[in-house]
Design brief:
4-stranded mixed beta sheet; Glutaredoxin
Length: about 160
């Protein structure tokens, strides 16, 4: 291992329960990412050790599914929907404008560590297209003009 990482007891119990079940890796990765916010290299190495699953297989799954992150996200996770309805109603422009507003490269985190932005395929609010979420808050019928006010709300929180 390159670095020691401490897993909380509830995560260790979860891993212990699920590691013996066929096809459990995705469940274990979800719980690990829920705990830490992302799957770090030390966390992946510890998972390999605890489960007996080869590190290459763990990284194969993590790199295949866009849901899993290998870098620490911002404190506030912004998601812009690029599903069909949102894309057709300007979701692509919203993500570009959001990145410009925050001065953020794709996959990056703002200098203050507050924001990261991800493209998602659907948030289930097609009637509100285009849609953006910040943490668990949903914003529909988004326009470029709304972005600064929304981001300021989270900066001040």
């Amino acid at each position: 291992m390159t670095e020691n990482i401490e897993f909380p007891k509830d995560l260790l119990s979860f891993i212990d329960e699920w590691k013996v079940k066929p096809g459990s890796l995705i469940m274990i990765l979800h719980k690990t990412q829920e705990t830490f916010g992302y799957i770090s290299r030390p966390a992946a190495e510890k998972l390999a050790h605890l489960t007996g699953i080869p590190l290459a297989r763990i990284y194969g799954v993590v790199s295949f599914y866009h849901f899993f992150k290998t870098t620490k996200p911002g404190k506030h996770k912004v998601s812009v929907c690029l599903g069909t309805a949102c894309y057709l109603k300007g979701g692509g422009d919203i993500i570009e404008d959001a990145r410009k507003t925050l001065r953020l490269a794709p996959g990056g985190v703002t200098e203050d560590g507050l924001f990261s932005i991800d493209e998602v395929r659907c948030v289930g609010c097609c009637g509100l297209a285009p849609v953006m979420t910040v943490d668990k808050d949903t914003y529909g019928k988004m326009t470029k003009a709304q972005l600064p006010g929304i981001f300021d709300k989270y900066r001040e929180a």
